[in-house]
Design brief:
Helices cover 50% and strands 22% of the residues. It has 320 residues and is an alpha+beta fold. The strands form three sheets. It has a six-stranded mixed β-sheet, sandwiched between helices. A four-stranded antiparallel β-sheet has the order 2-1-4-3, with helices on one face. The chain is elongated and about 75 Å long.
């Protein structure tokens, strides 16, 4: 008789698969067909959000659900689709032993027991496609991350801008851009060394992520220059966020190798998307505002509040 951890694991998985088959059989042939159709749909994408939309559409069509919430703290993901209601059903998602997060399904009234069993089984099917999508997301993020700071790199910025521009133009949503730069960064490197300069860059990104909204994304544009994409934000909202970031960075204190506490400041330029505008033009306008913030004393926020029909610049200026 073979008795080993590996053999015991095989036995346990076999028992679980047998139990799962029994559940499927008890739910009937029509449900098995529905499960097969769902599995085929889910195999059409490796994007987490698109996968959730497909699953939501399936449940909304079959069980009249109103909303779906997915949370995966391990991957910093929170996605909400539809509307939340008083009645909800929550389930922890696993694929084999891999915990994938929690899904909450909302509806107008309590679930019938039979429907709850079916949704639990469908979520089991969904979980295996979700695991593949999360693995793909991790691979994609690792190839689009600046390894020093943890911010998105230029490739990630371009991909994100393409996506956000399409959504903003299609749904007529506001979209703004911040471009920021560490003031006198060369002097920081010269006085305290490049390792300290790297520490300043990493600390800046950590602060940007802490102060900005969870929906805002941070990218390293090059050197000591960074970009934030602010969706659903007009120019005045962008200026408020930029000023909040500027003040937070101004308060930072970093300890150098000599024991000295060093502070630094940033200058920020902002611009909001105009109708039919290209990404390159929006970046140029935000970069121009950054230049004005630099040349007018640094540690400032400048925003392009010029109406599209006017030629002369009319800048929103906030001093330190």
């Amino acid at each position: 008789m073979i008795n080993s951890p590996h053999a015991n694991k095989i036995k346990k998985v076999t028992r679980e698969l047998a139990a799962n088959d029994e559940v499927q059989l008890s739910l009937g042939a029509s449900f098995q067909y529905q499960q097969l159709q769902l599995s085929q749909k889910l195999h059409t994408t490796l994007e987490v959000e698109e996968l959730l939309h497909l699953y939501f559409e399936e449940l909304a069509d079959q069980y009249h659900i109103t909303g779906l919430l997915y949370s995966c703290p391990n991957n910093s993901i929170e996605i909400s689709i539809g509307t939340t209601t008083e009645f909800s059903y929550g389930q922890r998602l696993f694929a084999d032993r891999d915990f994938l997060g929690v899904i909450t399904i909302c509806c107008q009234e309590t679930f019938k027991e039979s429907n709850e069993r079916k949704i639990r089984q469908l979520s089991h099917t969904f979980a295996f496609s979700l695991r593949n999508a999360l693995a793909f997301r991790h691979l994609k993020l690792s190839s689009q991350t600046d390894h020093l700071t943890g911010a998105g790199n230029r490739a990630a910025l371009e991909a994100s801008l393409d996506r956000e521009f399409e959504l903003a133009h299609r749904h007529n949503h506001t979209l703004s851009l911040l471009i920021l730069d560490i003031d006198h960064f060369k002097s920081i490197n010269d006085q305290h060394g490049h390792l300290f300069g790297d520490k300043a860059l990493k600390t800046l990104v950590e602060e940007l992520k802490a102060v900005a909204r969870t929906s805002d994304t941070v990218f390293r544009f090059g050197g000591e220059e960074f970009v934030l994409i602010l969706n659903s934000t007009n120019i005045y909202g962008a200026i408020v966020i930029a000023e909040r970031i500027r003040k937070a960075v101004e308060k930072l204190r970093l300890k150098s190798d000599s024991g000295e506490f060093v502070s630094f400041t940033i200058s920020i330029g902002t611009a909001a998307l105009r109708k039919h505008e290209l990404a390159s033009t929006l970046i140029e306008r935000a970069d121009k505002q950054l230049y004005l913030a630099k040349t007018n004393g640094r540690n400032q926020v400048w925003g392009d509040t010029t109406p599209p029909s006017l030629q002369a610049p009319a800048n929103k200026f906030i001093s330190a």
